Amino acid sequence: MTATDIRSRLGLRPVINVSGTMTSLGASIVVPQAVEAAAAILTQWTEIADLHRVASRTIAELTGAEAGFVTASCSAAITLAVAAAITGSDLYAIEQLPDTGDRRNEVLIQTGHMVSYGAPVEQAIRLAGARVVPVGQATSAHAYQLAGAINERTAAAVYVVSHHVVDYAQIPLPTFARVCHEHSVPVIVDAASEYDLRRFLADGADLALYSGHKFLSGPTTGIVAGSKDLVRSVYLQNRGIGRGMKVGKESIAGVIAALEAWKTRDHDGIRARERAALNVWINALDGRPGIAATIVPDPTDNPLDRLKVAVAPEEARISAWDLAARLAQGSRPVIVRDHEAEHGHFYLDPCNLHPGEEFVVAERLGEELDRARLANEPIMTPLDRFWLDREAAILNWPD
Ligand SMILES: *Cc1c(COP(=O)(O)O)cnc(C)c1O
């Protein structure tokens, strides 16, 4: 951290993010092209409908869709896409939401897709005035259950692509889309965190939704891509519930620049740098008692590998969750990917590092593991207490 680091001016800790593109840590490192574009437009007047037209063309070019639209976030995109499926381009109906009157308002989603990305996906659907209709059970869903749930009240179906969803026995997207289309039900795919900007539309999505601030490294935004009629109906929601979720000119210009930069991004070079970071950590952990490190691919096929760090608590003298928590403390906090810590492992994600930070991560791992070995007692907080403490801590803000 340098003296000009805004974090030191604001009294914030210089966190190192090896957990992924997390909203709670600022999502991603925005590419310079997007920073420049946002700064350049902030002091200019511009006709927002025209700026959105430019964004639509850029999104269309990259996704292969007819049109595109920029929202405040992918979460907002889910709400506005559902709203569009309910109202179409009826301006009066748009102003009535979240009251849907006697319009179709049921939205189907597989039970195994009803996850939280920090907020419940089903709440983003309900926010538009829709009624959520779960399909199948948590750990299985079948095409006949989807077909059977469709009726004259069905407005849309939502499909989530994510490491959060149940990863077996769910309906594959091409089948899901075919069943929906047989009944003229539009399919909205939440692909917030996916690299592939074309695949889901090719697999049958009528609208594909992405976060602009995850792998694209743009400013906080959502991206909607799809058929022109549906995308127009999403755009028109800005005259209704979309107003409270509006996106500023700086974010629209910024995400256009991030999309342009994506076309020429040096993906191979980035992968090589990420692999080098993984190797630094493997070396740092080599021979440490109770620690096993393995490289694992991304669960939804994004071109990204992570380091899985398995912690045997008896030998390491610390549990995986305590180690993750201790790494996050102090003046050089390292935030790891710990959503599976109860299974005795966490991940190190190399996709959001500034140059050199991989060495700080290696040092911090060594530091905390040494400390645990030297402690009088093994560091093993019972998991139930660990979770309850964490839950209680949520309410501590702003103090
Ligand atoms: C991150 C995420 C979201 C939310 O995206 P935002 O742009 O942060 O609102 C929605 N769905 C999934 C699957 C996500 O990973």
From TrEMBL:
Its cofactor is pyridoxal 5'-phosphate. Coiled coil: none annotated. Pfam families: SelA. InterPro entries: PyrdxlP-dep_Trfase, PyrdxlP-dep_Trfase_major, SelA-like. Gene3D superfamilies: Type I PLP-dependent aspartate aminotransferase-like (Major domain) (3.40.640.10). It comes from the Bacteria. Keywords: Pyridoxal phosphate. Belongs to the SelA family. This is Aminotransferase class V-fold PLP-dependent enzyme. It comes from Devosia nitrariae. The lineage of its organism: Bacteria, Pseudomonadati, Pseudomonadota, Alphaproteobacteria, Hyphomicrobiales.
